[in-house]
Amino acid sequence: MARLTSALCYKDPKAALKWLEAAFGFELVLLIEDGEGNLAHSQMSLGEAHVMVGNEWSADHASPASLGGKNTQTVHIHIEDDVDAHCQRARAAGAEILMEPDTQFYGDRTYRCRDLEGHIWTVGQTVKAVTREEAQAATGLKIQGWV
Question: Phi and psi for 68 in degrees, rounded to 5?
């Protein structure tokens, strides 16, 4: 079985670890530090979701904070519980809410936010079962591979 884990770069990865716990509920499961106490590698989990948090360790690994806020990917978390309450938790921790919770055509209620260094996250909760035919009718899009 394959599993995908995002690895995010931060200028201040130790601050990011604390923020991700406060904002999203991630738990630290691995922390590796060098002799001076600098973060070398870390991993966090939220249920079955995992993320690695590291520093800007090469010219090709940078935080959005070092790139004028630009992102090359966004991270999506799918949760089982109240996405509206999750959004409020993230807001209270200082997340910039880019899109308030809203129910999407595919049956998930989602919100979008920016973290303390500019990474963009979406968080979703399935609130309604939607068929491919219903989604196509709602959007006018041709959809393949609907599960």
Answer: 65, 25
